[in-house]
Amino acid sequence: MTLHEILDYFKDLQENNQRDWFKQHEARYKDAKSSFEVFVDILINEIRGFDPEIGALEAKQCTFRIYRDVRFSKNKEPYKTHFGAYIAKGGHKSPYAGYYIHMEPGSSFVGGGLHMPQPNILKAVRKQIFADPNEFLQLINEKSFKAMYPEIYGEKLKTAPQGYPKDFEHIDLLNHKHYSIVSPLDENIWQNPELVTKITEAFKVQYNFNQYLNEIVNESIA
Fold first, then answer.
1. CA separation for the pair 129, 137 (Å, rounded)
2. Does residue 222 surpass a pLDDT of 70?
3. Strand 179-184 relative to strand 109-114: parallel, antiparallel, unpaired?
4. For 10, how many CA atoms within 13 A lie in the half-sphere containing its CB?
5. Minimal CA–CA distance to 34: which of 12, 66, 57, 11?
6. E strands within the chain?
7. What is the side-by-side strand order in the sheet with 179-184?
8. Which residues, at least 6 apart from 199, have a Cβ–Cβ distance to it below 8 Å?
9. Going by fewer Cβ within 10 Å, which terminus of the chain is more open, N or C?
10. Each residue's pLDDT tens digit, 43-89
11. 132 vs 31, 114, 164, 208, 214, CA distance in Å?
C-alpha cells in the first residue's frame, strides 16, 4: 500500500468507525500499518544521521496504537483515524524530546519537542529558561526555525507558574505546559518523490531545540 493509499483508508475509517467495519477490513489495516512502519524505519535511519543520540530504534517502538482509550472520553469511536510516530531515545514512551510524524487526512503535520513532559522535567525546563531566557529565545527565533515552527504549541497557564514573578519580562515563555512544536504538511506531500528529504529537513530544523531540551531531561532523570 502506498502512503497516499493509507490516507484513503483513513478517510473510509472516518466514515465507518465501528468495530464490525474495522474487522471486515482488517487486512487493509494491516497493510496500511506495515507500509507506515516501513516509512518510519526510513525516517529513523535519516534522523540517526544527524542525531545519533536517538539510538537503535525500530518503527514498532515509535508508532502509536490505533485503538483509542474511550473510558474517559465523550468520543466513543474505537479507533484513531491517523498514524503517529514519536522518534526519540527510548521510543514513543520516552521522556526525551524527539521527532513526531502525524499522518491524517487533512491534518498531517511534523512535530517535536516535549509534549506532556513529566512534572519534574517541566519544572526544570522553566527553571533553565528563567535563568537564561536569551539562550531559549535565540533558539526559537532562529530564522529557519521560526519560519517552520512559529510558536510553542499547546496549553498554557493563565498566570505565572508558582514561584515565578508575574512581572518577569519573558513570563510567557514559562507559562507553557508543553514545549512542543508543529508544522502542517500539505496532503500532496505523501505523493511527493522527495517526501523523505522534506520530512528529514523539517526534523533537522528541530535538532538544536531538541538538544537544548534533552540536556535538561538528562539532568532531571540522572
1. 9
2. no
3. antiparallel
4. 23
5. 66
6. 83-87, 98-103, 109-114, 179-184
7. 83-87, 98-103, 109-114, 179-184
8. 43, 46, 101, 110, 189
9. C
10. 999 999 999 999 999 999 999 999 998 787 778 899 999 999 999 99
11. 48, 19, 14, 16, 16
- Judged by DSSP in three states, 85 sits in strand
Q: How big, in percent rounded to 5, are the helix, strand and coil portions of the chain?
A: 50, 15, 35
Angle 123-133-141 from CA coordinates, rounded to 5°: 115
Cell 521560526 sits on residue: 146
- Please report, for residues 175, 182, 194, the alpha-carbon distance to residue 147 in angstroms, rounded to integers and kept in the order given: 22, 11, 20
Residues in the chain: 222
Q: For residue 97, which of 198, 178, 184 has the smallest C-alpha distance?
A: 178
The grid cell for 201 is 529537513
Write down the mean pLDDT value for the chain. Answer: 96
Chain centroid to Cα 197, Å, comes to 18
* Structure-block grid coordinates of residue 51: 542525531
Cα–Cα distance between 129 and 141 in angstroms, integer? 14
Take residue 143 and report the three cell numbers written for it.
530564522
Cell of 130: 528563567
> In angstroms, how far is CA 152 from the centroid of its own chain?
12
What's the pTM value of the predicted model, to 2 decimals? 0.95
